[in-house]
Amino acid sequence: AQSVTQPDIHITVSEGASLELRCNYSYGATPYLFWYVQSPGQGLQLLLKYFSGDTLVQGIKGFEAEFKRSQSSFNLRKPSVHWSDAAEYFCAVRGGLTGGGNKLTFGTGTQLKVEL
Amino acid sequence: DVKVTQSSRYLVKRTGEKVFLECVQDMDHENMFWYRQDPGLGLRLIYFSYDVKMKEKGDIPEGYSVSREKKERFSLILESASTNQTSMYLCASSFDANTIYFGEGSWLTVV
Question: CB A12: neighbour CB atoms within 10 A?
Fold first, then answer.
């Protein structure tokens, strides 16, 4: 069974500083990996996804993530954080196609606070 | 734009009540999902459906059931609500394995 670990529950950064959110996964085959963002009181929005190919993927809002198979990691980065980036971030791995469906397994999330 | 609509954003129910959470998607997606979100636990899959009248248990199905009579609608049912089911419930839909779209969530409080 697949699993995802986000070791940082809370992170605080200053506006304009760089950001890295950590994500480690466990999955037996080639993983399909995702990062989602959730603003307060809202649903989840997809930031980026990795399926294959280039291990550095670009997403929306200036985010990027790097897949490192040797470290089982898929860390999210942004070179300069804006106050509007304050939100909760979820890493997810796609599981198998049981019953013809598809489902994501999520990490427990990292709450990002941005100091002005 | 894909739209996943959860009709009830905030509900307060009493212990023992039967609760229906409704979800509608407008993109003809085969796959629909119900997740529960709790602080420190992330999102956990309750049930999913890959076709009309088809359903599969997720990771935490106990105390819940679902109904999918039409392709666009996926309902989550709490047969007898309990206080430990106080949570945020997120519905989602997808066409393939690559992109899943989420609704804005339904906050349920059971008193």
Answer: 11
Residues of B with Cβ-Cβ distance to A45 under 8 angstroms: 102
Chain A contact present for B56, CB below 8 A:
yes
Residues in chain B: 111
Enumerate domains of chain B plus CATH numbers. Answer: 4-110 (2.60.40.10)
pLDDT tens per residue across span A74-96 = 999 999 999 999 999 999 998 65
Q: What is the pLDDT of residues B37-90, one digit of tens each?
A: 998 899 999 999 989 999 999 999 999 999 999 999 999 999 999 999 999 999
A51 to chain B: nearest residue by CA?
A: B98
Q: Tell me the domains of chain A and their CATH numbers.
A: 3-115 (2.60.40.10)
Contact of B25 with chain A, judged by CB distance below 8 Å, is answered with: no
Which residue of chain B is at minimal alpha-carbon distance from A102? B97
Question: Looking at the complex, does the CB of residue B97 fall below 8 Å from at least one CB of chain A?
Answer: yes
